[in-house]
Amino acid sequence: MTEVEGKQRVCVTGAGGYLASWVIKFLVSKGYMVHGTVRDPGDMKNAHLTKLENASENLQLFKADLLDYEGLCAATDGCTGVFHVACPVPARSNVPNPEEYYCLGKTVAESEALEYAKSSEFSNITVCPSIIIGPPLQPTMNASSLFLLTLLKGGIESLENKARPVVDVRDVAEALLLAYEKPEAKGRYICTSYVLRMQDLVNKLKSLYPNYNYPKSFTAIEEDVKMSSEKLQNLGWKYRPLDETIVDAVKRYEESGFLSKD
Ligand SMILES: NC(=O)c1ccc[n+]([C@@H]2O[C@H](COP(=O)([O-])OP(=O)(O)OC[C@H]3O[C@@H](n4cnc5c(N)ncnc54)[C@H](OP(=O)(O)O)[C@@H]3O)[C@@H](O)[C@H]2O)c1
What domains lie within the chain, and their CATH numbers? Predict the structure, then answer.
């Protein structure tokens, strides 16, 4: 990545989360001054942020909940851009049908933001990733990392052979920076790299890590998934090979004790 000229100031919401941590890592390494919002700056789950390279000079944490208008104003003050990554995600929700609330919330938020941008001086770009996998920087597990981890941890006898679109967390973070930096970027970008059937994913994991305990049978599911990142690729986006994503994720799970090698 090339360095930015001068010190451009940007805000990243939900700084300690899975995706936001990578966004911040890339931003500070490029010389951006980053205002990261967290709900609890003293919580150890955000401690990894201060250890990122260049963080001591380039990262400042602000306490803000998404419903805290004053807190968000303080965090975005002086910034030329905001990477709005924070969102309550289902694994942490205790409402009935959390997936539906999540999808509704994301859809309404995106369409409101795109609508608002039409009549304001702000330019608004949205990047919509598929299931995000790859190495976490943060010390806690998020919902989508459990996707790979659950398959490796064992205990699943049979699995529906669904097709799932996935993308590496670092590729999504790079897509966000690209969308921010490219003057020609506009509107909405789908960000996905591979569509995997569960059985193919398990076979891939088995070939790389034969010693884990994998599901033994699969139920046939016929549905297909069609998603394309062509618009993002036309902007210059590239994605990593799947093996790199899996190997880096498993290495991180093992190092941080989410997975035991024995
Ligand atoms: N992971 C995926 O597969 C996936 C796929 C498509 C889109 N996305 C989107 O990508 C973004 C990041 O997701 P992620 O996977 O990185 O999830 P994550 O690790 O759970 O991060 C979510 C972040 O949002 C913060 N947050 C939640 N509720 C908040 C609130 N009321 N006020 C302030 N902050 C709040 C959390 O802060 P706390 O640490 O304080 O809880 C956390 O830092 C989200 O917008 C998500 O919808 C993710």
Answer: 7-86 (3.40.50.720), 123-262 (3.40.50.720)
Using most ligand atoms within 8 A of CB, pick from 25, 35, 39 the residue to mutate for ligand 1: 39
Structure tokens at 181: 């930096």
- Amino acid present at 52: L
Ligand 1 atom with minimal separation from the 138 CA: 19
30 closest CA partner among 47, 11, 5: 5
Contact 132, 144 (CB under 8 A): yes
Q: Which of 196, 188, 189, 194 is nearest to 233 (CA)?
A: 189
Residue type, 202: V
Sign of the Cα pseudo-torsion (74, 110, 8, 239, in order): positive
Q: Please give the chain's pLDDT, 262 residues, in tens.
A: 555 666 799 999 999 999 999 999 999 999 999 999 999 999 999 999 999 999 999 999 999 999 999 999 999 999 999 999 999 876 655 667 778 888 998 999 999 998 998 899 889 999 999 999 999 999 998 888 888 999 998 888 899 999 999 999 999 999 999 999 999 999 999 999 999 999 999 999 999 999 998 998 999 887 888 899 999 999 999 999 999 999 999 999 999 999 987 6
